[in-house]
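stuck on this one:
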Amino acid sequence: MKKTVFLLALWLVSLAAFAQSNLRGTVKSSTGEELVGANVILVGTGRGSTSDLEGNFQIRNIPAGTYTLRVTYLGFESYTKEIQVPTDEFLDIALTPSTLLTEEFIVYATRATDKTPTTFSKVDKSDIAKLNLGQDLPILLNFTPSVVSFSDAGAGVGYTGLRIRGSDQTRINVTVNGIPLNDAESHGVFWVNMPDFASSVDNLQIQRGVGTSTNGAATFGASLNIQTDTRQDEAFAEIDNSFGSFNTRRHMVKVGTGLLNNRWAFDARVSQITSDGYIDRASSDLRSYFLSGGFYGEKHVVKMNVFAGKEVTYQAWEGVPENLLATNRTFNPYTYDNQVDNYNQDHFQLIYTGTLNQNWKANAALHYTYGRGYFEQFRPNDRLNSYGLQPLEIGGITISRMDIIRRRWLDNDFYGAVFSLNYISDDGKWDAAFGGGANRYDGDHFGEIIWMQYAGDVNIRDRYYDNNAVKDDYNLYAKTTYAASEKLYLFGDLQYRKIDYSFVGFNNDQRDISGAVNYNFFNPKFGFTYQASEGKSWYASYAVANREPVRRDFTDSPIVDRAPKHENLQNIEAGFKGRGSNFSYTANLYYMKYKDQLVLTGQLNDVGAYVRDNVEDSYRLGIELDGVYQFTPKFSLGGNLALSRNKIAEFIEYIDDYAAADFRQETIIHTDTDIAFSPSVVGAAIVEYKPVKDFEISLLNKYVGSQFLDNTQNESRKLDAFWTTDLRLNYAVRPRFVKNMELTLMVNNIFNRLYEPNGYTFSYFLPGEGASGRELVTENFYYPQAGTNFLAGVKFLF
């Protein structure tokens, strides 16, 4: 009986196994090009696959029956076929291009192509998705060439930033669908105002150096050109949840209608991110949404994007004093329970792109951004005269200092239009673009006292400072690529930019800052690309950029007496690109020569605020290497390395002297010193291994060389070099109740390295012993990043 039962069970198992079949095939375009990443699903079963690098796909363990197979790929018509399983047929599927216009041209005019002689990298949605567990975009770009990213709270949530080639966020131009994102006054990008924005990014391009002409702030180190989600032909839903160290939580829901009536599509996303932060009390409460809807015709697309962010972030701006790094790396000097930054930002974009005729395409967009919010501060024993208030007389005692809680507000509007026209000649030799934009920023800056230790002659909404700034920014550019031969492409790019900037009112130090400045900039660029053979090309270019000073350069320096000069950059780029069946690589040299670069020197203005000054000559010189090699279908190695020399010819340091009978500043002249925050070595290496289908193990390594906190090249004012390693596990399964389920585990800094990628310093003289009767005191502050920590997420696709 036991043998009979065993044989019967074995027969049933073998029968079930026999009834499970595999479906194999390949997906190509109608011209025979393999399509990588095409979605292949059996409708209504939750079973599916995606095509690999050769366009092949396989769906395993399919029960016998009749199914509807559907294949989709962006820019192509969807394919459906009824199939009978089991089958021995190898499906050779050819997709035909969609008759609907795609959205690529929205960013075409401001992007580089393979024929453009500049240095750039592209990051796709799939690359972002592997890392996206709620951290801001600068952290997700950490492993791209020449990038150093950091976080005030130490865990990648809240205030984050990045530098590229040593240039900070104020020198990196950022556009979203060709629309400027940089703050018009500070030139910065505050990613905290756009929580989980990475979940709505389709792709982005990073151009290093001056790059090609774009809209908005001048490109002085790099540009970041972002395109948001594009149309999906099939209806979808996505639920994404993650959690991790420091009580970090992320919840995201995303839905889309797919293409309705072959013309309309609508998408929506809502997100919430919370975190306690690595630094004490550096908490974040972040919320955002992204709405998009559009009409998609054969020749025209009209699309509306509305996205917004709301952030409440406890301040961790002060950093950790050097003397506490060894004993209390999470120190935060702030203890007041509402020491927060509280800000809202709403974005509206109306975009048109269309084909006018066989040779011409057009793109235009109207945009409006509304920002408002404040940061609140508890100020112990603060001076009343700092707020324009007279001392109080209470009980015969004169009180000139007391505890105060204040709010500093920013309420601004940014609006305008951008456009581009693209011409391609009938013979394909000319590819030209003409474009530009006109934008206005109108910002109110004001401060309020919301509480005082003792009642004074002030009401809750009285403003102790109030000023307004209006900035108009216009630009026009014309760029073209000409095929001089089958292998040689010539490139030219001319841009004119005009800026009118005016101020009126009083600053927070009670000074009248009224004034106006105007700039007219001409930025030429030209170069060539030589395609030596299939997959190999050389390029070289020369570009000029001019950049106006930021708001603080004007408000801290009297415009009439000491207006700062604008900055000038001349950039030479030259490189080589190659690719084969299982590898790709790039190598490039760059030289960036600055004139009148603005830097902090320690010099004070008439009310004791530190100002930036122009240094006449400085430069960056470097080489960047980037590549990936696919050893086997399961194992690949990729990485990048940047080696550079970053120098200031002459730098004058101003040091406060409190040892003197009358306060003064001493000057020290430094020559041939390193530019601050410019490591000579930055590298990354990513090892990926796929032991089984749909399971990927990745080791992500990052090395950043030592960098100085100021321009004196003083060894006592330095950030040490660091090497970190992250472990990432990605696993995709396809249960019957969803189209796809993805599990991700990210263990950051697995070797628990103690490192600080950002900080600041200042020095002063105090009375002391010795012949000089004084001693030099240097205070360094650092932003430590978290040790070993984790983030885990689960994503459901419907």
Q: What stands out?
A: The first strand starts at residue 20 and ends at 29. Residues 5-18 have pLDDT under 50 and may be disordered.
